[in-house]
Structures are given as structure tokens and as C-alpha cells.
Write a structure and sequence with these properties.
Length: about 170
């Protein structure tokens, strides 16, 4: 639970927090501290090196962080989440015949962000499903061409109803 995999500007780092003051970064142990200055600003100290950090954007596991005045794109996942994503990537590569996406819960289709025949990237939001007064993004599990069949904005759907296909 204390193991993470982060990509900073497309370079991969493995991070394991040993306790409140020690971590292992790419197999090297460091003393660390994090001093919060505000909700978006903090000072990170690794051994004797100090990094002044500002979180510019925080969207799911994707961050844009200014570190000592330099902007970096960071993607961070728990090790378990990272391994699951890698497994899905390899599985998705074998889904060359396509995939059907079904409603994970009953709800109302609020917004369809793509049109029949549009190409979508894996992870891209295809539609918004409102359920229990919450807006849920339904994302493309694989990259490909999307087909909606009879689903339209305003359509009420039951759980496991086919929302769209990606080929």
C-alpha cells in the first residue's frame, strides 16, 4: 500500500514509503520531509536537497507541478493500480476485434461527447451518465472507433445495458 509508480516527464520512478521520514526512490533510500505551505504549495526535502513545489493541476492521477520554477507533468499510481493498468493494456491489445461498454449502473445519459464513427483514445471520456445525482464519466477502455447504436442524450438506461462499442 506504500508502493507507487510515477512517471515524471515520461521517466518512470518507483517509490516506496518506508515510514514517516524514509523512502526508497528507484532502489535508493532517502530521508524525506514534506512541509505543507498551503493546499497547493509544499516544500519537499530529500536528504539535503530542497524542492519548492506548486501543484498547478490535479486531475485524477495526473498532475502538473512546478518544482523549483520548472513545470513537470506527473502521473502517479499505486503499485497495484499501475500493475492493473499494465495488465489491461496488454489485454486491450488482444481486443483487436473490439469491446462493448455496458452501463455500470442505472441512470440517465446526460452528455455524449463523441459521435458515431469518432476515433477515441483509451481513457478518453465518451459520455456522462448521471446516477444517484452524481455525474459519472464513462471512458473508453480501449482505443478505436465508437458506435452508439440507439443510445442518445436523455436516454434512461438500466445496469448492463449496452452503451457503445469500440472497434
Amino acid at each position: 500500500m506504500n508502493d507507487f509508480v510515477s512517471k515524471i516527464d515520461d521517466k518512470k520512478y518507483s517509490i516506496k514509503f518506508l515510514d514517516e521520514s524514509r523512502l526508497v526512490l528507484n532502489e535508493r533510500e532517502y530521508n524525506y520531509s514534506i512541509k505543507l505551505l498551503s493546499s497547493d504549495n509544499f516544500i519537499l526535502t530529500l536528504d539535503n536537497r530542497t524542492f519548492i513545489c506548486t501543484v498547478v493541476e490535479n486531475k485524477n492521477s495526473n498532475f502538473e507541478i512546478v518544482v523549483n520554477g520548472e513545470l513537470h507533468k506527473v502521473i502517479s499510481h499505486s503499485l497495484i493500480s499501475y500493475k492493473a493498468e499494465e495488465l489491461l493494456k496488454s489485454k486491450n491489445q488482444s481486443h483487436s476485434s473490439g469491446m462493448t461498454v455496458k452501463a455500470p449502473m442505472p441512470g440517465l445519459i446526460l452528455k455524449i461527447k463523441k459521435q458515431n464513427g469518432d476515433y477515441v483514445e483509451r481513457g478518453e471520456t465518451v459520455m456522462i451518465l448521471e446516477a444517484m445525482k452524481m455525474e459519472n464519466e464513462i471512458r473508453a477502455p480501449i482505443s478505436g472507433t465508437v458506435t452508439f447504436n440507439s443510445i442518445k442524450e436523455g436516454t434512461s438506461v438500466e445496469k448492463n445495458i449496452k452503451l457503445f462499442e469500440i472497434r
